[in-house]
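Reviewers asked in the last cycle whether our approach scales beyond single polypeptides. To address this, we selected a multi-component target totalling 339 residues and predicted its structure end to end. The input consisted of the following lines:
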Amino acid sequence: MAYTLNGKTVEADEEGYLVDLNEWNEELADLIAKDENITMTPEHWEVINFLRDYYAEYQIAPAVRVLTKAIAKKMGPDKGNNKYLYELFPYGPGKQACKIAGLPKPTGCV
Amino acid sequence: MEEENESGVVKKFMYVNRKAPYGTIYALEVLEMVLISAAFDQDVHMAFLDDGVYEIKKGHTPKGVGMKNFSPTYRALEGYDIEKLYVEKESLEERGLTEDDLLVPVEVMSRADLAKLMSEMDVVLTA
Amino acid sequence: MSTLHTVNKSPFERSNLDSCLGHVVAGDSIILIEDAVYAALSGTSVTARMADAAKQFRICVLGPDLQARGMDTGAVIDGITVVDYGGFVDLAAESRVVNAWL
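The resulting structure, written as structure tokens, was:
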């Protein structure tokens, strides 16, 4: 599949993950989120930015369990828990948030 | 003694890395296997010996050969609760490397000690 | 006329480099690429053999493959030359035959 943003086509795989991570931008993230029936809020962006930082540092998208723990460590237990993260990303803070963040499907996501 | 978690018996796994990175795909494949297997809450050990010690050498810069630098991912292992990393002393020495050349904290042990540790595992996967 | 020998396997894992060294004749060149670049470094168990070979033959090592593996070009054995892709092409062009020790 592909996304169309401002008349430009951005390639994605059959599940909607970007083929080329470098094509990501915030406007595209909004578009992908819309496809996922998510309206982006500052709370969503906080997770997306965290994921992008994680990827920049470790070169992988974390498994959801690892993401939850890492967010708890950085932002506290109020945000680093399944309930909070699944409310933001109902189809999974790993799978869905990574897609919006322009990252590959999480490694170690079974 | 075997422990149990909610889904059953915890086994001692050891992934043995003995291939250099980039020249072949083995190193990356083992790393991905380890990350995926981390979801099963097993007692995971990673050993680096022979050319496998090169996998965790600092300073990989594969841009010039058009490949992705996957070495930072070894530093993510800690977040996956994989903290038992062992490096064989003789393999380092044969290659002129020391513990300071490595990008993750490891336990350096002799070939004989590593052999003993390996013999205590329930599952060993070598690549 | 000469042969350029390419070696791409680690000297610690395979015997390709040893075989190559046993079949090089005067005037030939050797280039170490991919996992064979580890053979070009000082301080290892194959350094003495390589330093000796470098006295008899022209031996080169591919820089981008050293950098990929985090190896310092400053640690390359004296007498072994670091080349880039262009240098690799020049070596091949200068040689009558290229023999790849895969």
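Chain B touches chain C through 23 residues (CB under 8 Å). We regard this as preliminary and will revisit it once experimental data from Aim 1 are available.
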